[in-house]
Specification:
By secondary structure, the protein is of the alpha/beta class. It contains 13 helices and five strands.
Length: 300
């Protein structure tokens, strides 16, 4: 039986830098359309927006004057309804989940940190903690010379404020006791520089893209990405198994299906980011919801 072929693209990728970057959400979209249907979708968008731009991007759909086109695209009568999905990653929540998993063996307590940390410690202290945690877990990190010491120091500073109580205080104490685990992780990084980075948001997104579609195997046509090197694709195949038939990289301008995935990833990232930052648009959130992977990395 031939593999099901889906087209994918992303929005918001900044490698292992999960905090302090340009985006706070990573969105990875997968689309299952025929080439002809995708071309018709792109042409309809062009006809409705009527911009002279050679290549249309998600930003065209996100302009206020083009809102009716975006609502149509995502709506139940639109061309991608039932034929597209998007996996969303709240980068901060993802980082906290990895920190609490690798250092404490308890990824479930990430929610406590996520909900209570910023309000308890204030934005500046909390951002310093997130940056130190990000530096600790980055495999390719030229900036942090002593990431373990940096992280322990920041945790000590948070503890010394006396602001944390209850469950949050317990988590901090456990972090302080987890220095041996942190040092063991950094030793592993030194010994195996080709390890899959724990902060790689691509892996869970592609795993979910493959799992979301029916069929014995799934082949991915993806927009060209330096992240998806031959070595990286081999790692993905090793993790996912035979269900991933392969990943073929193309220029998005040469495949309308990838262009449609680009549209969905871009608008989903913006809608989700606005919701995270208390600027949510109820109509657009409702329109996007049918596409969102229920196993997105997002706090409930």
């Amino acid at each position: 039986m031939s593999a099901v072929e889906i087209a994918c693209d992303e929005s918001g990728s900044e490698g292992e830098k999960l905090v302090g970057g340009e985006t706070d959400v990573f969105a990875h979209a997968s689309v299952r359309l025929s080439v002809e249907a995708a071309e018709a979708c792109v042409q309809e968008i062009r006809d409705r927006i009527r911009s002279p731009a050679v290549e249309y991007k998600a930003n065209h759909l996100l302009r206020a004057k083009n809102r009716p086109v975006l609502v149509w695209l995502l709506g139940p009568s639109g061309p991608i309804h039932g034929h597209a999905r998007v996996h969303l990653t709240d980068k901060t929540f993802f980082l906290l989940g990895k920190l609490t998993d690798l250092l404490l063996g308890s990824p479930d307590v990430a929610g406590t940190l996520y909900r209570d940390g910023p309000g308890t410690f204030g934005r500046a202290r909390w951002d310093a903690f997130l940056e130190a945690g990000n530096n600790l877990l980055r495999v390719k990190n030229r900036r942090a010379v002593r990431p373990v010491e940096e992280f322990v120091s920041v945790v000590d500073e948070l503890s010394a404020t006396g602001l944390s109580t209850g469950a949050l205080n317990e988590v901090l104490e456990r972090f302080r006791e987890a220095r041996p685990r942190a040092e063991a992780f950094r030793a592993q990084v030194r010994e195996d520089p080709r390890m899959i980075p724990p902060l790689d948001s691509w892996l869970p997104a592609i795993v979910r893209a493959v799992a979301s579609w029916e069929g014995d195997s799934v082949a991915i046509v993806h927009d060209e990405q330096l992240t998806l090197s031959e070595e990286r694709v081999s790692q993905l195949k090793a993790v996912i198994g035979d269900r991933l038939a392969g990943i073929r990289l193309v220029d998005s301008r040469s495949d309308a299906r990838v262009q449609v995935a680009d549209f969905l990833a871009g608008v989903a990232r913006k809608i989700a980011s606005d919701e995270l930052n208390h600027r949510g648009d109820a109509e657009l959130i409702a329109a996007l919801r049918p596409y969102v992977d229920p196993l997105s990395i997002w706090i409930g």
